[in-house]
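Sequence design from tokenized structure. All designs in this work follow the same two-part layout: the structure record, then the generated sequence. An example of the structure record is given first.
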């Protein structure tokens, strides 16, 4: 692909969230911004851009996803106008510490959202959810792939609920920004997402230092909650969430057993 970020691609729109494409490029200080009204998946489109040579920091954003997905291939409801659907491309090199990706992204997104929307109370539910109160505000999908000559490519997608009235009636346990802080401009939510993703994802450390762990503790929604860990066909393990390790693993303390490190599977609250 030539002149990535300048050439108009099929399906792109000239305006998104009340801003022109040119204004978005100036606002986020990059040429490679791709706004759409509706596409299947921002992550999939960003992967195609990466394969075509798009630069690090390229952004894909849309009003609606018709085939949005979350972790482990689950469908992610992305109706028109209900939320922010944005993906960003990173080129961090050959070594990408994947266990930490969504933890770091989650903390930085929650931090930025709380700064810009006082009273929101955003927090992180391991491994990839954003919470506000006791309901799900959004999610993060980090996908690692390889480019030419073994280059590591990272695509991080973010979905954040913005308008509760536009969410499907069958979506349970969700909360939108306007329920917590009143009406929020979509462009302001996007600004928070861009700033949050760029805080540490370009150079994710192998492990979190003491200051980062202290910050993570403040945003750890699961900490001190009883949870159920499910992994494949194994019997579910019930334990107390005891924090997150420096490498991004969830620390789980089953009743009467030693502390465990959890790096895969699903976590549900309850089961005490």
């Amino acid at each position: 692909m030539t002149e990535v970020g300048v050439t108009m691609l099929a399906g792109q729109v000239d305006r998104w969230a009340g801003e022109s494409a040119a204004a978005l490029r100036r606002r986020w200080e990059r040429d490679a911004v791709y706004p759409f009204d509706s596409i299947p998946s921002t992550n999939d489109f960003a992967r195609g851009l990466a394969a075509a040579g798009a630069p690090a920091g390229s952004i894909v954003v849309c009003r609606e996803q018709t085939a949005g997905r979350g972790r482990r291939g689950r469908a992610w409801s992305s109706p028109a106008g209900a939320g922010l659907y944005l993906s960003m491309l990173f080129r961090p090199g050959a070594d990408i510490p994947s266990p930490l990706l969504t933890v770091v992204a989650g903390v930085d997104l929650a931090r930025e959202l709380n700064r810009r929307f006082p009273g929101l109370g955003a927090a992180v539910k391991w491994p990839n959810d954003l919470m506000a109160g006791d309901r799900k505000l959004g999610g993060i999908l980090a996908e690692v792939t390889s480019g030419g000559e073994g280059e590591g490519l990272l695509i991080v997608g973010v979905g954040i609920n913005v308008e509760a009235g536009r969410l499907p009636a069958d979506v349970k346990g969700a909360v939108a920004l306007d329920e917590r802080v009143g009406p929020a401009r979509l462009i302001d939510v996007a600004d928070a997402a861009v700033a949050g993703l760029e805080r540490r994802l370009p150079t994710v450390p192998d492990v979190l230092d003491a200051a980062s762990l202290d910050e993570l503790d403040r945003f750890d929604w699961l900490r001190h909650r009883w949870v159920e860990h499910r992994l494949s066909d194994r019997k579910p393990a019930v334990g107390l969430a005891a924090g997150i390790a420096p490498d991004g693993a969830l620390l789980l303390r089953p009743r009467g057993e030693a502390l465990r490190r959890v790096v895969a599977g699903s976590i549900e609250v309850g089961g005490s």
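The chain has six helices and 14 strands. We note this feature because it recurs in several other targets discussed in the main text.
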